[in-house]
Amino acid sequence: MGDASHDLDAVLAQAAAWQDAGLGVAIATVVRTWGSSPRPAGSKLAVNARGEFVGSVSGGCIEAAVIAEAQAIMAGERGPGVLAFGVSDATAWEVGLACGGRVEVFVEALT
Fold first, then answer.
1. DSSP string, 66-77
2. Main-chain dihedrals φ then ψ at residue 52, nearest 5 degrees
3. Higher confidence at residue 39 or residue 101?
4. Are 97 and 60 in contact (CB under 8 A)?
């Protein structure tokens, strides 16, 4: 089995363990990418109500925003939805990246 932070089975197993322990859990899934994106569609991140997480949807670039959204969804402050993050080609060139990119992440609470 690969690195637990990126292994789909490990992410889902940890989410199930948190649920079994009575914790609220949310799952974030990369649903679409364009251009430069550190993680492919299907990548997952699981978050519990204490803010602990496993997995990755971007390699660290957007995790904090996704975790905050997951906690808001678990708290009932909003429903599930898609978050979109991106950087234009022009901006990417300014900071030394080869191209821009976009990632869309669906975040939902598990029940």
1. HHHHHHHHHTTS
2. -75, 145
3. 39
4. no
Which tokens in the block code for residue 27?
């799952």
Which pTM value belongs to this model? 0.83
User: For residue 92, what is the DSSP state?
Assistant: H
Compute the distance between CA of residue 73 and CA of residue 79 in angstroms, rounded to an integer.
6
* DSSP secondary structure, 13-45, as one string: HHHHHHHHTT--EEEEEEEEEEES-SS-TT-EE
* 82 sits in which H/E element: strand 81-87
Cβ-contact 73, 108 below 8 angstroms: yes
pLDDT at 4: 40
Q: So where are the chain's domains?
A: 8-109
Start-to-end Cα distance in the chain: 27
